[in-house]
Amino acid sequence: MTQTLNLTINGTARAIALDDPRATLLDVLRERIGLTGTKKGCDRGQCGACTVLIDGRRMNACLALALSHDGASITTVEGLAQGCDLHPVQAAFIRHDGFQCGYCTPGQIMSAIALIAEGEAGLDPERVREGMSGNLCRCAAYAGITEAVLDATRTMKGNAA
Amino acid sequence: MNLFEYTRADTLEAAVGADGAILAGGTNLLDLMKIGVATPSRLVDITRLPLRGIKDHDGGLRIGAMVSNADLARDPRILARFPAVAEALLSGASPQLRNAASTGGNVMQATRCSYFQDPLSPCNRRVAGSGCSAIGGVTRNHAVLGWSDACIATHPSDLCVALAAFDAVVEIAGPTGTRSVPMAEFHPLPDAVGVPPALAAGEVITDVTLPDPGGMARHARYVKLRERTSYAFAIVSAAAGVHVADGRIVAARLALGGVAARPWRAHAAEAALIGQPRPWTPLPMPPRWPCRVPRRPATMPPRSCWHSASRCVR
Ligand SMILES: Cc1cc2nc3c(=O)[nH]c(=O)nc-3n(C[C@H](O)[C@H](O)[C@H](O)COP(=O)(O)OP(=O)(O)OC[C@H]3O[C@@H](n4cnc5c(N)ncnc54)[C@H](O)[C@@H]3O)c2cc1C
Ligand code: SF4
Ligand code: FES
Ligand code: FES
């Protein structure tokens, strides 16, 4: 039976006909919408490469059954930049070399944006590391990632003030 | 993953008695379906049910089954009255998973026994009477208490350990009515052939209630030992609380995690603590995210890490 899935993806409303209920949100984003920025690493909730914002909260798209999130608003890494202006977290990752191969980076950036919005880590590197622990980096760019998150936190605070 | 029929329950009545597996956050169920350990022919999605509230309840709290692990850990009443519950939640999984994971799903999550997770290995918990591959195999994360020759697996939840310590009760709605089971007895221990299910067919967890913690709110902690600082299941853990009056312990709660198929209440140890002088100066409470680690009391020995949620040395 075909079921219709309604999602708002990066601000655009989409109605997606699903004839297989097994699709995860990750599969829908990558294979139906063509947004391949969100990565599939482990597909089992262990690496964080698939992190997206669902109604503003970070979650692992690989363990989110798409139909269960009917009606939700999704933000992926493709929805961050305004034209050629990068999101402050994207810019900070570049400034601080927060990656090597870049495979984990979209998930790291989405997770970092949520971490900063949650507002509980502040400028404490240990809390930033704990708050980013759901995002593994096989290249071990952790030092740069932590610096990037701290820097972006400062920038975004400055922008808000 | 096998093909299944997807249905969304709009009312609790539609979910209770429904034939199929309950889908909450999906962080455990979908994982098990991907590896072929869970093969439900139908999913009953309960995410739209009005089970997301945390209500005051005679000095304690009534927590809806769909309250996320993240929301529960941030609730000011949990932080003030049940700080060890918040610590247990924040020590588990990752921020992304805690946003999706529900209270009911956390209670019902399956064991992490690696043979259970491999459909090709005989496992009495998956198929009663098929044998236990863990016995004689790799058992470093297995039970030391309450096991049988049929199964030696542990329950992996951190939350449940803290809930069991503070006398939480699981509220269940079933086709024939409702029932309440203490958290510490909710997960069945293995018998001679396998492990009985915690819930009967068609039953749904609606809430978990926590009674008034009394004087224990101020002195309660959750401590978790694991292989890395963060994002790993417990090798062992403990939730503890004491009520101190006039310098002596008048009530104590202690539950152990990672050691049995259920969170293990250490009643004898609790009894032995009663009447003991307070061991050290009160810890500043409550913890906040990620647990504000209190300064090491002067009476406690220094260690590189005496609190697992943070690597600080103080
Ligand atoms: C990488 C990883 C690391 C993790 N680390 C930890 C950790 O350190 N500590 C820890 O405690 N947990 C950990 N978890 C487990 C996580 O906490 C659970 O997956 C989560 O709590 C399950 O909740 P859910 O809502 O997603 O449940 P689901 O996956 O939706 O459901 C799980 C089970 O519960 C049943 N169920 C759900 N709700 C109800 C209900 N209301 N009534 C009856 N049955 C119900 C489902 O049918 C299913 O059998 C980890 C998970 C992953 C993937
Ligand atoms: S310990 Fe239990 S879960 Fe693990 S293989 Fe044996 S029977 Fe299965
Ligand atoms: S792909 Fe989702 S957590 Fe690894
Ligand atoms: S940059 Fe290669 S995995 Fe993180």
Overview of the structural elements:
The complex is a heterodimer of chains A (161) and B (314). Chain A has 161 residues and is of the alpha+beta class. Chain A has two domains: 3-79, Ubiquitin-like (UB roll); 88-160, [2Fe-2S]-binding domain (DNA polymerase, domain 1, Orthogonal Bundle). Chain A has five helices and five strands, in the order ββαβββαααα. Chain A has a five-stranded mixed β-sheet with strand order 2-1-5-3-4, with helices on one face. The mean pLDDT of chain A is 97. By secondary structure, chain B is α+β, with helices and mostly antiparallel strands. Among the domains of chain B are: 52-210, Uridine Diphospho-n-acetylenolpyruvylglucosamine Reductase, domain 3, CATH 3.30.465; 287-314, no CATH class. The radius of gyration of chain B is 20 Å and the shape is globular. The relative contact order of chain B is 0.14. At the A-B interface, β4, α3 and α4 of A face β1, α2 and α6 of B. The complex binds flavin-adenine dinucleotide, iron/sulfur cluster and FE2/S2 (inorganic) cluster (2 copies). Flavin-adenine dinucleotide is lined by residues 21-29, 31, 46, 65, 69, 92-93, 97, 100-102, 104-106, 108-109, 156-159, 199, 204-205, 233 of chain B. The site of one FE2/S2 (inorganic) cluster has 11 residues of chain A, from loops.
